[in-house]
Amino acid sequence: MGKPATPRALPDNEAKAVARMLRVSPQKLNLVAGLIRGKKVATALADLEFSRKRIAKDVRKCLESAIANAENNHDLDVDDLVVSQAFVGKALVMKRFHARARGRAGRVEKPFSNLTIIVREVEAQA
Fold this sequence. Notes:
The protein is α+β, with helices and mostly antiparallel strands and 126 residues long. It has a single domain (14-121), classed as CATH 3.90.470.10. Helix content is 29%, strand content 36%. Strands 1-3-2 form a three-stranded antiparallel β-sheet, covered by helices on one side. Strand 2 and strand 3 (105-121) form a beta hairpin. It is flat and about 65 Å long. The model has no long low-confidence stretch (mean pLDDT 96).
């Protein structure tokens, strides 16, 4: 006896994965997320593999998780998947202080980000 299961928020042809608490600023993460928006997953994975950004490895892991969710949980065809959405949100910001001249302190902010990737199955064109 418990609460009824929450209905699925996404349509049947979509799957998502969320990476939380990534140690990078949302602005930098959004640059990498912009690389993969709207692309087929095979192309997106290749772009992330050869990206020179440090956070691209974590974005690739999240994309692979979304692909695995689509394949295993929702029975979608991996070859027809497209990255329909990739959006970035703010998480916490650690505040640190850096010693400056004449006994003062400079504030150093170390931001964290959340990344959500939604993949959609599209029908193959004939």
